[in-house]
Structures are given as C-alpha cells and as structure tokens.
Amino acid sequence: MKMERMSVAEANGAIDRTRLDTIRADFPILKLQVSGKPLVYLDNAASSQMPQQVIDRIVRYQTAEHSNIHRAVHYLSELATKEYEEARVKVQHFLNAKESREVIFTRGTTEAINLVMHGYGRAFIGKGDEIILSGLEHHANIVPWQMLAEEKGAVIRVIPMNDHGELLIDEFEALFNAKTKFLALTHVSNALGTVNPVKEMVAFAHKHGVPVLLDGAQAAPHHAIDVQDLDCDFYAFSGHKMCGPTGIGALYGKAHLLEKMQPYQGGGDMILSVTFEKTVYNVIPAKFEAGTPPIMAAIVLGAAIDYLNGIGLGNIEAYEHELLEYATHSVSAIPGVRIIGTAAKKAAVLSFEIEGVHPHDVGTILNADGIAIRTGHHCAQPVMDRFHVPATARASFAFYNTKEEIDKLVAGIRKVQEMFT
Amino acid sequence: MSDMKQLYQEVILDHNRKPRNWGAIADANRHADGHNPLCGDHIKLSMNVQGDKIESIAFEGHGCAICKASSSMMTSTVKGKTVQEAEMMVEEFRGMTTGTLDPENQPNHLGKLKVFAGVRDLPSRVKCAILPWHTLHAALHSEESASTEGRNDPVPDSGMVA
Q1: N or C: which end of chain B has fewer CB within 10 A?
Q2: What's the pTM value of the predicted model, to 2 decimals?
Q3: Is the CB of A360 less than 8 angstroms away from the CB of B125?
Q4: Strand runs (DSSP E) across A312-400, as ranges?
Q5: Domain extent at residue A305
Q6: C-beta atoms of A384 and B13 within 8 A
Q7: Does residue B43 belong to the interface with chain A, where contact is any CB pair within 8 Å?
C-alpha cells in the first residue's frame, strides 16, 4: 500500500508553479478577500483549508448516502456502513497500519490521547509508576497524563530540549528506569516545528518494555506516516489539519494492546450483548466507538486522504520544506526579528518574535493586510516558558501556500516594525 | 477595521513605550492581579485608597500594546478620583469597548480613553483593552484576581487551538 501511494505521488510530479496554480484553484476559500485584501492563510498548523473535491464529498454524502451505520438492513444504512468502513481502510493505508481494525475513529487527536489515557493508562499505570513526556508537548498530550498521574499517584517525567528546540536524547535515555510505564511524545512540535527522531526514541523505549504513543497532529498532514516502520504502539491525528473536516480524527493502536484495554465510553455499537446483569463488549475497533460516530466526517476524511495522496505526500513534504527554507531565510534577514525553534529537522512552522512588539499586536496588524497567522502560546505553555516568552507569532505553511505570500508576510512584519518605532 | 492607524494611534503607542504609573505602590492597601489566558497578558495592580479616594495607583506586568496602554491610561485617569467615580468609568469603558455605549453620542466621562473605541470591531482584542479595568474593579472590591474569562466576559472565549 505504501508503494501504491508513492507511485501516485511520483506520477503527479513535484509541485512547481503550474501545479501550484492548479492546486490553489481547488481551494475556494483562497479566493476570499479579508480586510479588502486577498487572504494569505498562514495558520495551517491550527487548521488547514478544504479543497472543492472534499467539500463535494460532504454534499454527496448528505444528498444521497446518509443513514445510521452498523444497524439497519436497508439500502442507505448498508451504503453508509460500507463508505464508513472504507474510510477506515483509507486511514489504515494512510498510516500503513497492518489491519483496519487497528484504526479507531475519534473526534480528533485530543480524544484519541484521552482514549489511550483511559483505556490503557487507567488499567496499566499505577502508584509510583512513571510517564515520560517531552518539553515540546501540546497541552493535549500533557493534561490527560497529569489527570492520570493525579488519580493514580503516578509521576510525570519530562524530556528537556536545547536552545534550538531539539530534545536532548541523552537526557531522554537517562529518564528510563524500572518504574517507567509509558512514553507520550509528539512527532512534530506544533509551536516550533521540530521533527523528533521518533523511530529511534520508540526503539529505545521498547528496549525497556515501555509502550509509546505518538501525537501525530502536526506530522500526518506533511509527510508520509508508516506506523509499522516507526513501530509505535499508538498514533493519533486530526482530520481538520489535513484538509478534512473538524470533529474527526483517528487513533491507531496495535491490535494486541487495543484488545486488552478497557473501553473508553459505554453505549451502543461497543457491545455484543447487554443485560442488566452483564454486558459483553464488542471486538475492536467497535469496542472504542460507542454511539453513532461522526459518519459523514469519517467518510470525508477518507476523501481528504485521497486528495493528499493524489498530490503525493512526498511532493507535499518537499514543497513545504522549500517554503520553510524561503521563509526562514526571508524572516531571519529582518533586523529585530528572532526565530524561535531552529531545529535541524523542522516541519513548515515558523515561530518568531519582533523585538519590542507583543505577538498579539503583530497578529492584529497583519490581519489588516489579510494575513492570517497564529499568535499566543499555541497550547504549549511549557515551550513558551522554556524560551522565556509569553507568546510567539507563528506562521505555518501548507502545500497551497506560495513564496509571494511569504513576501507579503515579510512586508507585513516590516510594517509592524515601522508602526512601533 | 482595516486601518490600523485608527487603533494604534500615537497616544496608544506612546503609553505602550512609556507606561505611566509603572511599578508597585509601597503602602498599597488594595491589590489585584489581572490575567488574560488567551493572550498571556498579565498585570499586577496596587493602590492606596484613603476613605473613598484613590490616593495612588501603579501597575506592572506584561502584555500587548493595547493592554499596556490601556493600563497606563486607566491608572492616569483614576488617580485622585473617588471609588464611585472609578467604578462608573469601569462601566463606561466596558460599555464603549463592547458596543453598548456610543462615546460620541451618549453622555460619558471617558475623555481621552475614547481612543480605545476601535477595539469594538476586533472581538479578540476587546479583552486586552478591558483587562486593566476588570482588574481595577477587582482591586476596589479586594478580590484577589481578575480574569477576562468570566462573568464580565465581553465576548465568548474563542478557546485555544493549536
């Protein structure tokens, strides 16, 4: 399946000027005017935009396919069930998981992590046990583990980072001991863009018999993921950061772990039989999908995966890297601007601060020129504390952005500086 | 609002650069902390109130230009005023920035503070301007801290996303 995806990518070729115009034409929102200026959307790490092909899938489903799934014998229910399960197979191939039953649909990355905390953490982590997190984590991969630690009397240990925003691997390895029971780690930092050496870190954790959850929210949209190659035990991602809708994401888990985990929520669909005396839980993945799931959103996520595969994850990664290099070069050339997060290996995220100007003022002034960036702590307050800033301005790029848009960002930054001198 | 010069007027930029009443009051008998979790704006307000008069007031902390300038101008405005006058201004300022008071056509005592009227059009920035006034209200009532997330929330919290 991995091979198939690569061949599609190669068939379509790299993202050059001509291809970029075709891609941009797929995204109706990119034609929007904001404050009377063409929208420059550089907030893709928060949420990406949706191409017409994916929007059309919503309309087709709601127009001609909608029903509840896994229940009735009528035409629509069978059709919706088939499409929903096919979407699961698309996610399986997207992640290169061994089996589709290792894919659980969730509301997003946050719910996927909470599912693992409840289903695995509450069953297998106890008093005095240690959970390792990294200093780069998003709050979604900190708070659930803190809640568990508080409930069970477990201990959180944190992998520190250097001034570039790279995790210190020696210190990471030194954290392991007989009490270490879990490693929850981000694949790519949302605040700084750092790509962590997760494959090596997973291998090290496994040497100590420690299972690993990877937060793939920022990684999945930007390069090919192969959970078998990474050998991670859990992988979580969100649909809306990869051209899909909000309210849908997925958790990959190794089958043998999912099978021994306790259910996350109780309800319909997750049971085999119910009496007031005893309930028998369904097999995976149904065991973790209580109630009517977001059927439309899951099917549309499948369409988003088709769209990304059509462009080719390899092409996306290469082009976004080109954008990052261009932006890093242009922005760092402006006196009085500091880039925060200078790891050797980065995804297309550029966090920066302008000397003497608060990021929120930067965001407001750029917005007046139609430029959308994120300002704030990016739900990663420990990262902000590490770099002694309350917040940063963050531009994050997708494969539909252009170098001209980066030029507009640079002009916007200069305008902010002029206003504040 | 597309013309940023309407919001970032010279008076605001000047108060941001050189905030007045910066620091802490040594013999303060009223304190409050103001915090805006969305932006990370954080101010510490201290005052000395004698009878019903604000004798001295100062602030420190960190925040965006709107928050800093608003804090600076708030302290300059209420220094020497009575508690009742200050409370009335809290209400008027809140009214102006949330759009329930039109400072040009309705009676008010806002004066120079009208430069903040522009934040009305920027819901995500209303909190920055209003924070010092919420903190003043909290300090006058000896509440320990003020937040832009709460009862007086001018706009629904837009939440925090990655």
Answers
A1: N
A2: 0.91
A3: yes
A4: 337-340, 349-354, 371-372, 374-376, 392-396
A5: 56-309
A6: no
A7: no
